[in-house]
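Checklist before submission:
- one chain only
- standard amino acids only
- sequence pasted in full

Submission:
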Amino acid sequence: MGTVPFTMRLEVDLKTSLEAEAAREDRSAAYLATRAIRVMLEAKAAKRRIIEDAMSEADKGEFISDEKMNAWFQSLGTDNELPEPEPDILIKPA
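Returned file contents:
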């Protein structure tokens, strides 16, 4: 994949820390900055997908009550673990 120039302003202490870390890793500051931007964008995309999936799931209108969820959670690790709760609140989608 090709690259293009990108210029930005950094606070002095951030630039100093970036350059020091780059020296420790025997990499360029640009390499570390690119890697950090990529990781941040991938994390944001993953979070967005999780939220979109949760919203799609919620749109089905099937929910588990606090009571059932808490009872199941409290049973974990005990001799009487309950099976995962099934939805007990059904709301018709609009």
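Reviewer check: Helices lie at 12-25, 29-59, 66-75.
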